[in-house]
Amino acid sequence: MPLTPLSAARQAAFDAIAPAAPERVPLLDAQGRFLAAPVTASRSLPGCDNSAMDGWAVRAEETQGATRDRPARLRVTGTVFAGGLPTTSLQPGAAARVFTGAPLPPGADAVVRQEAARPTQDGAFVDVFITVPPGNDVRRAGEEVVAGTPLFGAGLRVSAAVLGVLASLGATDVWVRPAPRVAVLATGDELVPPGAPALPHQVYESNLVLVAALAREAGADIRQLTRARDDEAALREALTRLAPQVDVLITTGGASVGDKDLVKRVLTALGARFFVDGVALKPGKPVAVARLGDAAVVVLPGNPGAATVAFDQLARPLLLKHQGVLETRRRVRAHLSEARHKQAGLTYLITTTLEARDGLAPRAVLRPQGAGQILQNVHGEGWALLPPGRADFAEGDLVDVELFDRPTFTSVGPQA
Ligand SMILES: Nc1nc2c(c(=O)[nH]1)N[C@H]1C(S)=C(S)[C@@H](COP(=O)(O)OP(=O)(O)OC[C@H]3O[C@@H](n4cnc5c(N)ncnc54)[C@H](O)[C@@H]3O)O[C@H]1N2
Ligand code: MOO
């Protein structure tokens, strides 16, 4: 099968799964998930004019000219606490004791903080020491949100900030898409489980943790982490057992052309339908996307660096599609920190950090990178994209850098 160009492979992976049906869940269970329906403000915030300070509700004009030496003396006619209701409106010449969050009595249009006033000893009057303008220390009804305003679109990732707003509107639950159920299967005879002793020629199995963590960053609910030997019967058993339990099954290793690279062969024998098999991408070339029964299957190469890139470019969009969103990463143009030679037919993704420069495009500082290496990703800020159709890049050449942080998500599929 010829290698699929990266953009076509991404589209094919995206098409290999449909958004899951929305579900309504309690607010805290929605954290990190994606809204499956738009949210409109069901009430105004604040719901009524209220005091921003502990102090005195007044008519602003009656404080005109007030100073510490020449205070404005007002008659005290009531107290309002947060959550209480004023029993009377404020008459001319009067002030009401108010606390932070208390509704303003009708007739009052400003608040004087208690530090700027002093009640008389009998409490019948209060002396105001400052001149305040109308609206002083008042939070206006609807100043943050007016009831009926569209607030959030479908596809927004539910953060702590989003949850706070939903709770402040009185919501207890919200429409989101379920987290995809994911199993990860690491294959390879040479792998030693972490915790056991390993000789220098042996390799600790690290892809289960790596891929499970990457999948969780993409919203997955990890159900199974399993290892299997490079053996047809063992692979057949693991694949047929895991696939029916999950929405997405991710394998690592055994994806290439070696004598023991059996994963694709076994999947084919089990009747899997392939959407992608081999991508013009480095690292990550052997990656494949298939369906086995109702599960999407992503076959990642065993090299951890290659698995990271292949996951990022194909498994991540697929997991996000299940959650009803398409991710768009920000891109910047940057000057390469060093020359690179590459295979002309492939897209190279190189972990990079960015150095800002006054008045110039930033410098993309390329990290040393091999398909088996992953240390470079710890501080990586994005991928320098070296596009196909070209083999040589010089120091200083301008390339696109796909940034990891602050992506945007747009809703795909029917909403709740
Ligand atoms: N003749 C060719 N050889 C290879 C080709 C090719 O086109 N022709 N492709 C190469 C590419 S590209 C990659 S990437 C690797 C990936 O191959 P596999 O997916 O079959 O991976 P393995 O052979 O099983 O392992 C590769 C490497 O990664 C280590 N590994 C595997 N699993 C884990 C794990 N769970 N934790 C940590 N490390 C793991 C493994 O020990 C090997 O060192 O194939 C090239 N070969
Ligand atoms: O392209 Mo492989 O995935 O790098 O070594």
From TrEMBL:
Gene3D superfamilies cross-referenced by the UniProt entry: MoaB/Mog-like domain, MoeA, C-terminal, domain IV, Molybdopterin biosynthesis moea protein, domain 2, Molybdopterin biosynthesis moea protein, domain 3
Keyword check for Magnesium: yes
This enzyme's EC code(s): 2.10.1.1
Taxonomy, superkingdom: Bacteria
GO CC annotation terms, alphabetical: cytosol
Swiss-Prot/TrEMBL catalytic activity: adenylyl-molybdopterin + molybdate = Mo-molybdopterin + AMP + H(+)
Pfam families: MoCF_biosynth (PF00994), MoeA_N (PF03453)
A GO MF label: metal ion binding
Keyword Cytoplasm listed: no
Transmembrane region(s): none
CDD domains named in the record: MoeA
Keyword annotations: Magnesium, Metal-binding, Molybdenum, Molybdenum cofactor biosynthesis, Transferase
Cofactor: Mg(2+)
Protein's GO biological process: Mo-molybdopterin cofactor biosynthetic process
Domain MoaB/Mog, residue spans: 183-321
Pathway: Cofactor biosynthesis; molybdopterin biosynthesis
Family membership noted in the UniProt record: Belongs to the MoeA family.
Name of the protein described by the UniProt record: Molybdopterin molybdenumtransferase
Organism: Corallococcus macrosporus DSM 14697
